[in-house]
Write a structure and sequence with these properties.
The strands form 4 sheets. A 6-stranded mixed beta sheet has the order 6-7-8-3-9-10, with helices on both faces. Strands 2-1-4-5 form a 4-stranded antiparallel beta sheet. It has 18 helices and 17 strands. A hairpin with a 5-residue loop joins strand 12 and strand 13. The protein is of the alpha/beta class and about 375 residues long. The two termini are about 15 Å apart. The structure holds adenosine-5'-triphosphate. The site of adenosine-5'-triphosphate has 13 residues, from helix 1.
Length: about 375
């Protein structure tokens, strides 16, 4: 857990970088710090591992005032990932990854085994990449090594400064997603600095939107997009914040429509009669285990007649998302397959379909829910300030 209590930093030349910051990052939470260049994000982050000392205020990590912790020991408990990655050019990828475990006195074999495990975890086969040098990697691969290295000593806290900044947008999105699924297992307490609002929204459990040297709003991405606390925040998150909400609103059971169903082994004429009766133009087709197979049109079933079965006429449906996926993913599947709906699965089971109308309703629901929850961030600040 990381806690800032009225922390300010004035640099020797008189520049006030941050002023009276109070916030808390819960254990296992990922908080993004976002704001324009020069607003104090990096200063905030570097005070946590004491690369920069605050002018006033306190910072606690796991309840301990870090001013009284030896900086070298402190840094071993805190993983640090930066944009330029900072790999040692003359050391192999494996040795780079094993740097911190080796520093804290692990035996060489154990440190290297751990490094190999971590490389695997970030999607780099240690047999292929372990013996390479940083210059022999792509930008995205270097970034992965940076993340692996930061995680190698299993620090409870991770600081990430524009960790995906140096790669193109496609690789960037993939690295973000990979990091999120990694984070779902390792559950580190993470502070992530970015100037990219999309990244802040996508990655953060909560996000801190910086104005000049102070936090304008500290809340969940959905709340920041749904109810910006100040005109500044509204302007910063952008006029298309409704669209950005698609990334943070998830597909829920209640959003789904239940279309007519047909079974793969059903005779075509029986299925056709049933669907005509229900005035349905198509049905979702499931296999005997209730798993999605695809869809079938009522007209085609009617024309086929006996002895055809649904299986003969059904088409595969590739557009599906799991329950709990962001609406954006559902929308993008709809567009990619040019489909008027997307199937939603609960595990392997078919749960229903999402249509454009239901997607719009889901978006409305989340906007309304947040409009009622305005100000949650401020309440939290007050309680920190009073402590
Ligand atoms: N060593 C320093 N001496 C004086 N001023 C500094 C120093 N380091 C940073 N600053 C100033 O402090 C302010 C905050 O800088 P900081 O690097 O924290 O911003 P940032 O939000 O991380 O910006 P960026 O996104 O451009 O990295 C800026 O005005 C910067 O010029």
């Amino acid at each position: 857990m990381i806690r800032f209590e009225r922390v300010s930093k004035v640099y020797p030349d008189g520049t006030s970088a941050v002023d009276g910051l109070s916030f808390e990052v819960a254990e296992g939470e990922l908080v993004t710090l976002v704001g324009p260049s020069g607003c104090g994000k990096t200063t905030t982050m570097m005070m946590v591992n004491r690369l920069i000392e605050p002018t006033s205020g306190r910072i606690l990590v796991d309840g301990e005032d870090i001013a009284s912790v030896d900086p070298v020991k402190l840094r071993r408990r805190i993983g640090y990932v930066i944009q330029q990655v900072g790999l040692f050019p003359h050391r192999t990828v494996l040795d780079n990854t094993a740097t911190v475990p080796a520093l804290v006195g692990w035996k060489r074999a154990k440190a290297r085994a751990r490094a190999a495990e971590l490389l695997d975890l970030v999607g780099l086969d240690p047999r292929t990449f372990g013996s390479r040098y940083p210059a022999q990697l792509s930008g995205g691969q270097r970034q992965r090594v940076g993340v692996a290295r930061a995680l190698a000593a299993d620090p409870p806290v991770l600081l990430m400064d524009e960790p995906f900044g140096a790669v193109d947008p496609v690789v960037r999105e993939r690295l973000q997603n990979e990091f999120l699924s990694l984070q779902a297992t390792v559950r580190k307490t993470v502070l992530l600095v970015t100037h990219d609002i999309e990244e802040a929204v996508r990655m953060g459990d909560r996000m801190a939107v910086y104005g000049q040297g102070r936090i304008e709003q500290f809340d969940t991405p959905a709340a920041v997009l749904g109810a910006p606390a100040t005109p500044y925040v509204a302007q910063f998150v952008g006029a298309d914040r409704g669209l950005k909400r698609l990334s943070v609103t998830t597909v829920e059971e209640a959003d789904l429509e239940q279309p007519p169903l047909a079974r793969l082994d059903e005779p075509a004429d029986a299925a056709a009669a049933r669907l005509r009766e229900a005035e349905a133009r198509w049905a979702v087709v499931l296999n005997a285990s209730g798993e999605l197979h695809g869809w079938v049109s009522t007209d085609e079933l009617s024309l086929a007649g006996t002895p055809a079965t649904v299986a003969d006429l059904a088409r595969r449906m590739e557009a599906w998302v799991p329950l709990g996926a962001p609406l954006k993913q559902a929308f993008s599947e709809m567009l990619q397959y040019d489909a008027g709906w997307v199937a939603v699965l609960d595990g392997t089971h078919f749960a229903g379909v999402l249509t454009p109308a239901k997607l719009h309703e889901a978006l409305r629901r989340s906007v309304d829910a947040d409009a009622q929850g305005v100000g949650r961030g401020e309440v939290e600040f007050d309680s920190v300030a009073d402590a």
